[in-house]
Specification:
By secondary structure, the chain is mostly beta strands. The chain has one domain: Jelly Rolls (Sandwich). The chain is about 5% helix and about 40% strand. It contains one helix and 26 strands. The strands form six sheets. It has a seven-stranded antiparallel beta sheet, with no helix packed on it. Strands 3-8-5-6-25-26 form a six-stranded antiparallel beta sheet, with no helix packed on it. A five-stranded antiparallel beta sheet has the order 2-9-4-7-10, with no helix packed on it. The relative contact order is 0.20.
């Protein structure tokens, strides 16, 4: 049932159809009025701060933590924000602020620039951030689709509660419960590909069973918080990944603390993958073409004043789409 147990790094190891998964856990301090940390930035390598200092990182941000404008082509990003907020702005003029359980699903397709900043909106209390970003590959047939993004607001994402566990269905299906529809050109949009992204919390000493898959898929569990879990007699410590045989049902038993896990599953695309930073194509020639096109066009340019654009401090959760459609949440 267990194929492999491996130590989690930064980013986490993934299997086809997934390309990348990273877990951000930052205990950010109170924010200033401009949503920057209300703390000294001395001693940080600003612009490339990936070393945890005082419990948090600035990443590529120099004032506000996060990832200023950067391009993508040929795949999708799925950003799950369990705690804190993420501000999105992109080269299509689209924007959003999401968090506290929301998920953004973005198809980069033929090319888009976006920034992902982590505004510290609270000035009277700390601003913890817990975020996963997952890269899901696109098959050759969809690598040049138009860029697209949609929000999966937390109010719309099903959470299944059993006697000992809760399961948040971000993609896929558990029993009769289905996740919200993903982006339309996604590998996950075809149910036959059995893509599943589940966030699982198991109560102390509780159990949870993963059902077997009817088709051949890759299935990887990431154990990121807790003290221990047991799978088919094997003890697993936190900060480890577990590659599973998805053709068999697997029961997970938590230790003395609540166990937090992320599961990624899907039918492999089984196509060549050539990656260069933010571009994922099938051949080296396509990578070179992507770099050249980005150099010439900037994938439409950057319509915002700053590469690390953030929204008004008092703005709530919202999404503004390229066609001007606006969604606002409480």
């Amino acid at each position: 049932m267990i194929k492999e147990i491996f130590k989690l790094g930064f980013p986490w190891q993934t299997e086809d159809p997934f390309l990348f998964c990273v877990y951000h856990l930052d205990q950010y301090p109170k924010g200033k009025q401009d949503m920057a940390p209300d703390a000294s930035l001395e001693g940080r390598n600003l612009g490339n701060d990936f070393t945890v200092k005082d419990g948090w990182r600035m990443y590529h941000g120099q004032t506000i933590p996060g990832f200023p404008a950067h391009p993508h082509r040929g795949f999708e990003t799925i950003t799950i924000v369990n705690k804190g907020f993420c501000d999105h702005s992109d080269s299509l003029g689209a924007a959003g602020r999401f968090g506290e359980g929301d998920v953004q699903w973005m198809t980069a397709g033929k090319g888009v620039q976006h920034c992902e900043m982590f505004p510290l909106v609270h000035t009277e209390k700390e601003n913890p951030l817990e975020l996963f970003q997952i890269w899901l590959n696109l098959p050759t047939s969809n690598k040049f689709v138009d860029p697209y993004f949609k929000m999966l607001w937390h109010e719309d994402i099903p959470v299944i509660k059993t006697e000992n566990a809760s399961l948040k269905i971000i993609a896929g299906q558990y029993g009769v419960e289905k996740a919200p529809e993903p982006a339309p050109n996604s590998w996950a949009a075809n149910a036959a590909n059995s893509v599943a992204i589940w966030n699982i919390h198991i109560a102390p000493n509780g159990t949870f069973s993963l059902p077997k898959s009817d088709i051949e898929v890759t299935r990887t569990l990431y154990f990121y918080e807790g003290d221990t879990i047991e799978i088919t007699g094997s003890a697993v410590l936190p900060n480890h990944g577990i590659k599973l045989d998805a053709s068999k049902e697997v029961t997970i038993t938590a230790g003395n603390s609540q166990a937090h896990l992320l599961m990624l599953q899907g039918k492999p695309i089984n196509e060549p993958v050539v990656k260069y930073g933010p571009f994922v194509m099938n051949t080296e020639a396509e990578i070179q073409a992507a770099m050249q096109e980005y150099k010439l066009t900037q994938f439409g340019g950057w319509p915002w004043r700053y590469p690390d654009h953030v929204h008004d401090k008092n703005k709530g959760r919202f999404a503004k789409y390229p066609d001007g459609t606006l969604e606002e949440k409480a």
